[in-house]
From TrEMBL:
Residues 262-422 form the W2 domain. One of its GO terms (biological process) is formation of cytoplasmic translation initiation complex. Residues 147-178, 199-214 have a biased composition (Basic and acidic residues). GO terms for cellular component: cytosol. Residues 215-226 have a biased composition (Acidic residues). CDD domains: W2_eIF5. The keyword Nucleotide-binding applies. It comes from Brassica carinata (Ethiopian mustard). This is W2 domain-containing protein. Keywords: GTP-binding, Initiation factor, Nucleotide-binding, Protein biosynthesis. The keyword Magnesium does not apply. GO terms for molecular function: eukaryotic initiation factor eIF2 binding; GDP-dissociation inhibitor activity; GTP binding; translation initiation factor activity. Catalyzes the hydrolysis of GTP bound to the 40S ribosomal initiation complex (40S.mRNA.Met-tRNA[F].eIF-2.GTP) with the subsequent joining of a 60S ribosomal subunit resulting in the release of eIF-2 and the guanine nucleotide. The subsequent joining of a 60S ribosomal subunit results in the formation of a functional 80S initiation complex (80S.mRNA.Met-tRNA[F]).
Length: 423
């Protein structure tokens, strides 16, 4: 079957790896019953990662004709006689609207239906979430016929648990291997080979050792040239040596305490400010959003510090309408929360930002901010609940953040209990 690159803009790229079959159509019937059969629509839809019913329905909507997809036979029919070129043109429009990422143009996207009944495309390449125009007729069909979830919530949790267990087992195996290496002598092979060849016992070795020690003693006597070394064992000398040793130990303790004090004098806040400055400078450049993930990964600082710096760089100085500002800049947060554990890092950054002195006014909006991030699938329910519980039991449990977050958490818990009751 002939293949072509997905997307007209990539038509002439010989190295483009995303491909789909060229469309094949067939006209069936006569008169008023004439229909166009998209013969390989199932294969095309599979290559695009979309249900075949979506493309069939899209053709019907755009041509103003009835369309039907048979799930059992995989037949796609559109009423009327339509040329392959016309249908291929419509397919290209479908790809632009419902397949390619609006940010980077990559076709590796997933259809996401938000809790507010909006159709979005989540890009696996750059993390960008594209908002589909809800005025398009096909969006109504998608809302009524949502794509099958790749993995349910429970499956995701199970996968995460299994992954954590595998990581723990791997770490345990690495530690065991390290211990074995430490225990094994560096010249174990040589030693074992010599023993096996010579079969030398302890009794055989002892006389040889005594002889060697005697020779060494004789050499030492020769080198000393008659000088005899003696240690002053008087009480005064012993006390003097003890004082010197105590002075050395005290000095070492003083040096350690000074070093610790110096480390405390160099607060992380300075390092954090420098990192925020770096992040602001990067954002000023206006680099493509798809490069943000790579930039974050290139930084040597701990992931939590990097997330704190990004959040501060994006929202530092915002006093009113904080939630609206989050809506405008959420694409950056999407790109930064693609790695394992990044959602918890983002929640920790939110907690520290809104709990900061001077942010009491914007801190009142923290529940609205979390609701926005939750609706856009940037943070998931289980992480929010875990983060909130840790905050209540943590060192900074007196922070006003937990009081402001509480209504949103209660709403989450009530929604969860309702869904369990319905099940």
């Amino acid at each position: 079957m002939a293949l072509q690159n997905i997307g007209a803009s990539n038509r002439n790229d010989a190295f483009y790896r995303y491909k789909m079959p060229k469309m094949v159509t067939k006209t069936e019937g006569k008169g008023n019953g004439i229909k166009t059969n998209i013969v390989n629509n199932v294969e095309i839809a599979k290559a695009l990662g979309r249900p075949a019913s979506y493309t069939t329905k899209y053709f019907g909507c755009e041509l103003g004709a009835q369309s039907k997809f048979d799930e059992k036979t995989g037949t796609s029919l559109v009423n009327g006689a339509h040329s392959t070129a016309k249908l291929a043109e419509l397919l290209e429009a479908f790809i632009k609207r419902y397949v390619q990422c609006y940010g980077c143009g990559n076709p590796e996207t997933e259809v996401i239906i938000t809790k507010t009944q909006l159709v979005n495309l989540k890009c696996a390449a750059c993390g960008f979430i594209s908002e589909v125009d809800m005025r398009d007729k096909l969006t109504t069909f998608i809302l009524k016929n949502p794509p099958e979830a790749k993995k349910g919530g429970k499956d995701k949790k199970a996968m995460r648990r299994a992954e954590k267990e595998r990581l723990k087992e791997g770490e345990a195996a690495d530690e065991a291997q390290k211990k074995l290496k430490k225990k094994a002598p560096s010249n174990g092979k040589e030693g074992s080979s010599k023993v096996s060849k010579n079969h030398t016992s302890d009794e055989d070795i002892s006389p040889k050792l005594d002889k060697i020690e005697q020779e060494v003693d004789e050499d030492d006597d020769d080198d000393d040239d008659g000088i005899q070394w003696q240690t002053d064992t008087s009480r005064e000398a012993a006390e003097k040596r003890m004082k010197e040793q105590l002075s050395a130990a005290t000095a070492e303790m003083v040096m350690l305490s000074v070093q610790e004090a110096e480390e405390k004098k160099t607060p992380k806040s300075k390092e954090g400010k420098a990192l925020v400055h770096v992040m602001k400078e990067y954002l000023k450049k206006g680099s493509p959003l798809s490069e943000l993930k790579a930039f974050i990964s290139s930084l040597s600082e701990p992931p939590q510090d990097v997330m704190d710096a990004l959040f501060n760089a994006l929202f530092d100085g915002v006093s009113k309408g904080f939630t609206e500002e989050v809506k405008k800049k959420k694409k950056y947060l999407v790109a930064a929360t693609q790695e394992e554990g990044s959602q918890m890092h983002l929640l920790n950054s939110i907690g520290s930002f809104f709990g900061k002195k001077g942010n009491e006014e914007v801190g009142k909006e923290v529940a609205l901010v979390l609701k926005e991030l939750y609706d856009e699938d940037i943070v998931e329910e289980e992480f929010v609940l875990e983060w909130y519980q840790k905050g209540l039991n943590g060192v900074d449990k007196s922070s006003p953040v937990w009081k402001n977050v509480k209504p949103f958490v209660e709403w989450l818990q009530s929604a969860e209990s309702e869904s369990e009751g319905e099940a």
